[in-house]
Hints:
Blueprint: H1 3-15, H2 18-25, H3 29-43, E1 48-50, E2 55-57, H4 59-85, E3 91-97, H5 102-106, H6 109-115, E4 119-125, H7 128-136, E5 142-146, E6 155-159, E7 163-169, H8 182-185, E8 190-193, H9 201-211, E9 218-222, H10 225-234, E10 239-243, H11 249-252, E11 256-259, E12 266-267, E13 269-274, H12 281-300
Parallel strand pairs: 3-4, 3-5, 8-9, 8-10
Antiparallel strand pairs: 1-2, 5-13, 6-13, 7-10, 7-11, 7-12
Amino acid sequence: MSLKQLRYFCMVVEKGSFIKAANALNITQPPLSLGIKNLEEKLGSKLLNRGSHHVSVTASGAFVYQKSREIIELYDSMKSEIAKLEGASQSYFRVGYSPACQSFATDNLPLLHQEFPDICISAVMGDAGYLRNSLDKEYIDIAFLQEPSQLDSKYEIVPLPEIEFVALISNKYECSNKVITLQELSKMPLAVLLSASGDGFYHRLYDLFKRNNLPFRTAVESLDKYVLFDLILKNKDLVAILPAGELPERIKSNYTVAKLNHLGLVMRPCMMHLKTKDSSPVMNKFKQLITRKNKQLALAD
């Protein structure tokens, strides 16, 4: 088992497709497929469910993805520390974000780089459990994720505007007044954002169905919302449950956007970092940019 195989596997999970992962890695598909196959053989477990247009992770695959991200981050962090010890001049600012919080994390990175052109900005996506673990081990400097139910005094936590979730429904289904019930959703094949730990939006959604004794029929799971956009455009049977903000026009024009507020499906995101990181000039500037954007959003509302 090699680090390259773990990177290959993580990219396939995040892109939801062997073709898209190969393009992102700038390699052809055969060595990518072979690398994943060899990894599965080494671990003695099937990690991916392979479909004609997409892949999804198995239960074992979700666990391996989480651990693989930790190993990769540890390796990258080790390289960074070695570079510092050897007198390398470049410094790093490492940002982590959950899929639903991507825009909070990434929209201001170009402005941050203009202010600090000598730093290398690293951005990594993961679920809430992975991000908190990465903060604790200082693999990342700051994270954007769902606000934890139990607050820890070692963190500086800044609440961000609520994120509403919607159901994207093709005209194949009847949906009156852009409202859909949980009972109706339980009869549809769902495309949802993946979460490997037990405290993300995915598990809140699962618990909602379970409490109402309804089946939770997921057909597609991915960490990348853009993978879900592509898949629902190709398969009109799928109903995607995604953050309401930043829906592409191609989605809005082809799908009914049904609100889910009446089901309590909102996310309360936050910006979180260890208090020991608060004195960094880069951190302070980044927080200023985020605060400014939040004020602009509040005025727009």
